[in-house]
Amino acid sequence: MSKLEGGMQELEETIYWSELLVDAEIVSESRLAELLTEADELMAIFASSAKTAKERLRVKRAGSQSSRSKPAPANVPHDSVA
């Protein structure tokens, strides 16, 4: 999870600096258009993956907590019929 989020932060910074280069007219927008499109696509993939990972972790934690909260079966002998 943290690697995905770290990758998203790096990608955000890359997009920021790329847009800054275009805004400052250092690099033409047409030259970076394909890279910015790909960066946006990667950001969507990373965000979706992070959301899925968080949901799976939440479900896993909820499952392990519910199994802990169940009472242990009582020790009742099978031949306790009167």
Gist?
With 82 residues, this protein is mainly α. The protein has helices at 2-23, 29-69.
Structural write-up:
- This protein has 82 residues and is mainly alpha-helical.
- The chain has one domain.
- Helices cover 77% and strands 0% of the residues.
- It contains 2 helices and no strands.
- Helix 1 runs antiparallel to helix 2.
- The radius of gyration is 26 Å and the shape is rod-shaped.
What form results from the Cα inertia axes? rod-shaped
User: Can you summarize the main beta sheet?
Assistant: none
Query: What's the tally of helices?
Result: 2
State the assembly state of the protein chains: single chain
What is the secondary structure topology, with strand pairs?
Elements: H1 2-23, H2 29-69
Task: Give short descriptive properties of this protein.
82 residues, mainly alpha, 2 helices, 77% helix
